[in-house]
Amino acid sequence: MDNDGPMSQVALLINPAARHGRAASQVDRVLVRLREHGVEPLVLDSSSAEVARTAAHNAVTAGVERMVAFGGDGIVHLAAGAVAGTSTVVGIVAGGTGNDAAEALGLTGGSLEDRVDRSLEAPTAVDAIVRVDSDESLSGPSHAITSCVAGFPAAVNARAEAMTVPRGPSRYTVATLLEIPTMRSGLFRLVLDGEEREERAAVLVVANTGLFGGGMRICPDAIPNDGLLDVCLVGDVGRFDLLRSFGKVRTGAHLDHPDVSVHQAAEVRMEAVDADPLVRADGEPFGSMPCTLAARPGALWVAGAMTRPPGRA
Question: Which CATH number fits domain 130-297: 3.90.1150.10, 2.60.200.40, 3.40.50.10300, 3.20.20.60?
């Protein structure tokens, strides 16, 4: 990327705990590369999630032009929550255990320096998922960039977050295997653009992008700038059938299963009739059901993003 002069008003939001602390050793490389582009960023305090959230919102309120988020989906979730609906551009430098947002938007390739370069490129408008109802249990951002999950994947996600080993995406695989023995399907009431339905399902995913859980292609055809959410339901399947189908989610081949269905809607109302009400988004807590989620077109300006689903022509 060529710069005619110093780029001002750039904030750097870092998750030093990403990849169990290994990302912290790469912060200096990120800073060096930014400075090679004439950027002297304001490094935001990220000593805790709450502190980082407050710092990110304060930076946007103060008029920062670009927020570079270095880490995994958790730090991207915080950044997206702060910049959604504003003119502040978010640059994503993948460096976490789960990099689903970066992977879905074509931002993971190359060296760390290449990823920093892309965080300074011209932005593309990307939709976000917004929680339009209020929930006192939701203390963090009300926006998500990848997907919101309920049922079995929410339980897996919570378990994976609490684990310290193994490192990398394999942590989600281990968490899945550990959760299988306690898995049970639940009854959900959904309203998709005004059309009500009740479904018994083990998995409920409302997706803006196609990936979740460390690279699984749960909604492989989701387009993050079409103003629609893809809703994937894995029906009342047994533990063995769910485990047997697990590998297929890596490639998107699970869509051929007769108990898997995908729907599209601009707004999704979710209620837990007889199911765990826990909801997670971008791998982070996102309150509980009942809740209403909606696509917010063009809510995010993401540097260097591609909106074609990975692996799609």
Answer: 2.60.200.40
